[in-house]
Amino acid sequence: MAEPAYTVASDGETTGDEKSSFTFPEMAIGIDIGTSQCSVAVWNGSQVELLRNTRNQKMMRSYVTFKDDIPSGGVSSQLSHEQEMLSGAAIFNMKRLIGRVDTDPVVHASKNLPFLVQTLDIGVRPFIAALVNNVWRSTTPEEVLAIFLVELRAMAETQLKRPIRNVVLTIPVSFSRFQVTRIERACAMAGLHVLRLMPEPTAVALLYAQQQQQSGHENMGSGSERIALIFNMGAGYCDVALTATAGGVSQIKALAGNTIGGEDLLQNMMQHLLPDSENLFSRHGINEIKSMGILRVATQDAIHKLSSQTSVQIDVDLGNGLKICKVVDQHEFEEVNREVFEKCERLVHQCLRDAKIEIEDVSDVITVGGCSYIPKVKNLVTSIFKGKELYNGMNPLEAAVSGAALEGAVASGVSDPFGTLDLLTIQATPLAIGIRADGNNVVPVIPRNTTMPARREMTFTTVHDNQTESLIVVYEGEGKKVDENHLLGYFKIMGIPVAPKGVPEIDVCMDIDASNVLRVLAGVRMPGSPKPIIPVMEVRMPTVDDGHGWCAEALNKTYGSTLDLVMVQPKV
Amino acid sequence: MFASSPTSFLSAVSFQPTTALKSSTPRNTSSTKFVASYSTKETKTPHFFATKMASSISLYEILGISTSASCHEIKTAYRKLARVCHPDVVAMNQKETSTNDFMKIHSAYLTLSNPEKRAQYDRETYNRPKWNISSSSLTSATIASMSGFPVYAHASRNWETDQCW
Fold first, then answer.
1. What is the pairing mode between strands A226-233 and A364-368?
2. Domains of chain A
3. For residues B146-160, b (16+ Cβ closer than 10 Å) or e, as one string?
4. Helix or strand (DSSP H, E) at A227
5. Alpha-carbon distance B10 to nearest alpha carbon in chain A (angstroms)
6. Nucleotide-binding: present as a keyword of the record (chain A) (predicted)?
7. Looking at residue A78, what is its pLDDT?
8. Which chain B residues have a beta carbon less than 8 Å from that of A537?
9. At what angle do helices B95-112 and B6-13 cross, to 10 degrees?
10. B31-71, pLDDT tens digit by residue?
């Protein structure tokens, strides 16, 4: 059964799953952990409501400050984020860093953040630390996220006057399953049980389905479906989804995602304003951190202003004799970030292609996320859809968390007498999952955009005569070669009967259930006999822990050729 | 849960026509019970991940539509079934069966909603003498969950009488 991977129960209660849908449950709340801002929402019986912190904010900055012994996060903290950033004690952007190894370009791009991110380029987790009283206090993205979630939980508990345990979280489309386990671990550390993890645009799709249902575009079951394209660009990630909606059911046709977002726009701008920043700040002393912080805040400000005005004056003293005095206009900003915007366009086209949907068939184009306020982002989406007007029924910052709250209510078994919760999102896999075979290739067993739950099977065979063992190495991603994909885990099947190469049939089956749990099954058959020779092995993935970059390399070096597999062409 | 051991997991997955004899299960039996008992009796699985459904039940029957259904009707039927059979909406104790059911419903939908695949399927199916309308976990689950659902009142094929139990 789908036991949560890390159930660190905060009390002696049941493990959430079993009990909840019979007796009326503790309803799950929706949380949108953004790279820059977080929000919490809950179904209040008639509609979705966003919770506010003690400062009456619905959007809370995602950061944690390490000071003295007690770290404090952006939920409750009274000081402004901007001030704390200058001291090197505030850690943020954890959603970008979580579950990544130090060879990852995203980690490298994080080195100019005003805290310490060190890389050794060997495929282990990066060294991340906050400067506390002149000492580097090491931490991990999971820890930072957990501290933050504890505060969110406390805030929600105070307001809803009940203990909170179940949550629905939104995640970027491009998150690997390994990153998902890190999010789950952070939740477990915070005493939260993840009921569902939804790719962000699919949460938006659920909200859209509800709006369609309510606006009476259709009555239940009329097959006239509306195709919507959802473009979601926040600070850390850009996601695109195509969904076909009718009767409150949203079928995800295709998902596409990438690690590009407001953070890239910001870094490109900082680079543009101060081309030598990498060298200037490489020492990571208290002064450099302060300068980096000031530059960051000033650039961020300028970008925000450029959403509503055509040019902006930047006038900032970074200390150490460094001053920036410059006028930047919208065109310059768009030129500096041309590559980022082009990537966004490609993502939309890829999604349309994958879903096999023509531009003319799209009924609604929805842009959400912080970056959807940027004129260039709106323009690039509308120009793809030939000037079509954007859907305006959603608050770009609240759409994802509202969808998560709806899913929280639906998945907790809450029903609504007016039928406002008769909703369903039929999810699709954002990334392909396959195994290593035919040398250093990855053969996808479940392709991307396969409707979940899913189960697929493929047959492989041995490459050597008398090969009695073979290694099933499971990867996730779109690359053809193993090193372009994320390693999820591996196991060995032993006891293959002695036979010439190509004779034993090794069946590999992958199964993803509705809660997105992946199981990999492998068994061996000999031709002519339908029965497995050895007991079928069933392994829940991912199995690897940190340092999987290293692990993959070692595995392929040591066993790459001896325990290899090749694909068997399907018989017609 | 029966899915915890590999053998029962696989047998719950498999979908063999040979088990048609067990079709005497009353219609109102919960689908979970039905498959659970089925999986304990059927411990040996001829093909060990029989993901393909038995050919004895037609894709049209899975979706509960007539063989002349329009594309629009197919989509509608699929959504209606999803609203009751998807694992996200069923009770916790039925997740396992509903997962299998939903995958069958989806694959039926995928074939029938694609004109080419549908035509090919029709050709292959009509070459058979007749469909052996066997009971299966799917039929029982679908019927159980669909009973009382208004759509079937005006569906062209009457399920209640077409089933041979």
1. parallel
2. 17-195 (3.30.420.40), 199-259+339-393 (3.30.420.40), 262-336 (3.90.640.10), 433-567 (2.60.34.10)
3. beebebbeebeeeee
4. strand A226-233
5. 9
6. yes
7. 58
8. 6
9. 40
10. 333 332 233 333 333 344 544 444 568 889 899 898 888 88
